[in-house]
Structure formats: C-alpha cells, structure tokens
Amino acid sequence: MTSKTAPMQTRTTPTKTTPIPTKSTITPETTTTMPTKTAITPENNTSMQKKTTITSETTTPMPTKTAVTLEKTTPMPTKTTVTPEKTTPILTKTTPVPTKTTISITPEKSTPIPTKSTPVVSGIEFLQEKWNVWYRTLDVNHDGIITRADVDYTLKQFPLVEGLSKSEGKMAVDKIEAWWEKYILKGNNKITKTDLLKDQEKEYTENKKNFVAKMKALCEDIFCILYTDKTKMISLDNFVKAYKVYGHDNEALLRKAFELYKPSHGVVPLQEFIDDWLLFLTNDDQSKIDVVYETYKAGLV
C-alpha cells in the first residue's frame, strides 16, 4: 500500500498550474479556449479547486471590458471640445456687425446736410450782399454811382408821378431832398458802392442797436413821404409809383413783385411794408423770410 500512494503525490504537485494564470491574462479578449477543461477531468477533489480558480479567472476579464468602455467614453469630451471651436466663428461673425454700423454712422451723412443748409454767406457778409442790392435801387439813373443827379431825378419825378400841385410838390420835394442828405449823401456830392457798404458796416458793427434804430427811421421817413394818400395802406398803384420815382418803371415786373408781399384785398399795411424793408436792411440771418430781398433776387425790381 505504501508503494501506491507515493505516485499520487507526484502527479498533483507538478507546476502545470503556472500556465493557467498566463493563459487567463491572454484570454480577456475572447474569454474562451478553456484550457481548464483538461484540468477539470481528474476525479480528485483537487480538480474542484481548479474550477473555483477558473471562476475567479473568468471574472477577471469583466473589468477589462469595463475598461474598454471607459476608453470609448474618453473621446466624448473630445467631441464636446470641438463644439466650442465651432461656436467661436459665430462670435467672430457677429463682431463685424458693430463694425458695419460704425462705418455707416449717420453723422458722416448728416455732416453734408448742415453744409447744404448753411448759407453761402452769413452775418455781415449777408448784409453786405443786401446793401449792394439796395445801392442799385438808389442809383436812380443806373450809371454805377450815386450823385446829385440821382437826387434831382427823384425830386423832379415825384410831383409828376403823384400828380401833386405846385405847393404840395414843393413840400414833398423838400422832404425828399432832406432824406437824401441825412441818410445817403451825408454832405458828399457822390457815393460809391464801396463807400455805402463801408459806412453801413461801420455803423452796424459799432452799435447794432443804434444802427437798427437809424434804419427804421430811414424807412419810416421815406415811405411816409412817398405814400401820400394817408390811408396807412399801400396799394399796387402806390407801389408802382414809388418805384418809378427811383427810376424803376417796368410795371409788369413791379406787379409781380407786389404779389410777393401777399396783399389782402389788394393792399398791404404801411407798417408791414416798413417792417419788411427794415428786415431787409438790418437782418443778418438768412433763414428768415425776407420779402424785399426775394423781389430783388427774382429780378422783379
């Protein structure tokens, strides 16, 4: 009996169990091959232990599979990082939008608008332009210079145009001559356009209030002389006769000029007419309506 038990010990103790873990490390990808089936065949109880070890070996690949799953989930953050890169150009596209709005800023377009509405001349220059027009009216004989000859023409024409008697004519003539001397000639025998413009500018710049008061008196004095019917109203007939005294006898044009004053029932109040002329001689704001200046620009006077 002793001689039979000795070989059994030598068969169970061999180191053949060492390759089993080696195979188990290779098999996680397939989990088959089952080399343990050859080892399971022995009838001894030791084979049972091998089965239990196989069970633990077969469970070993499961974490390996879960590890593979983690590798697959790892690219997901990578994909999410791609999404911010796509959104970045969107912000870049929105950036030019304010750039376009700043380029097309309306102030650049509104800048020419005030330029167009701004008068070519303003202030004293605008007044000089109107005084230049007025000078042509005072140059009764249209020879380019105001002299005593212009005064004499008005003194002769006024009684004739108005149909005044000799005594009435004499009184009117004296007033007209005084007006020329006080406001225009001022002791001189002739007045050039340069002289008149310089004189007007000097008085305007030194004391505008006094200048306006003087021009108001100038308008009131002459129009109260020229319009002799004492009605305080100016009719078309009055208007035409007054300009004829100053050498303007184109009646067709004068009729058109009178319409610019917008007469009511064919007449314009004398004070309104005086105010219009005062505006013409003293106003330096071109934005204001200037009826007298409009008649000259239209070539009606």
Structural notes for this entry:
The chain folds into two domains: about 1-25 and about 35-70, no CATH class; about 125-295, Recoverin, domain 1, CATH 1.10.238.10. Helices cover about 70% and strands about 5% of the residues. The protein has 18 helices and four strands. It has helices spanning about 1-10, 20-25, 35-40, 45-60, 60-75, 75-95, 95-105, 105-110, 110-115, 125-140, 150-160, 165-185, 195-205, 210-225, 235-245, 250-260, 270-280, 290-295; strands at about 145, 190, 235, 265-270. A two-stranded antiparallel sheet has the order 1-2. It has a two-stranded antiparallel ribbon with strand order 3-4. Helix 10 packs across helix 13 (about 195-205). The chain is globular, with a radius of gyration of 58 Å. The termini are far apart. The model is unreliable at about 1-120 (pLDDT under 50).
Please tally the helical runs, counting DSSP H or I stretches of 4 or more residues: 18
CATH topology of the largest domain: Recoverin, domain 1
Structural class: mainly alpha
**Regions with little confidence, pLDDT below 50 for 5+ residues:** 1-120
CATH superfamily (homologous) name of the largest domain:
EF-hand
Distance between the termini: 161 Å
Q: State Rg.
A: 58 Å
Classify the beta-strand content into a percent band: under 5%
Mean pLDDT: 72
- Largest sheet geometry: 2 strands, antiparallel
Order of helices and strands: HHHHHHHHHHEHHEHHEHHEHH
Shape: globular
Named at the architecture level, the CATH assignment of the largest domain is Orthogonal Bundle
Helix content: over 70%
Report the CATH C-level class of the largest domain.
Mainly Alpha
State the domain count. Answer: 2
Kindly report the spatial arrangement of strands forming the biggest sheet: 1-2
How many strands appear in the DSSP assignment? 4
Protein name: Sarcoplasmic calcium-binding protein
InterPro entries: EF-hand-dom_pair, EF_Hand_1_Ca_BS
Keywords: Calcium
Organism: Mytilus coruscus
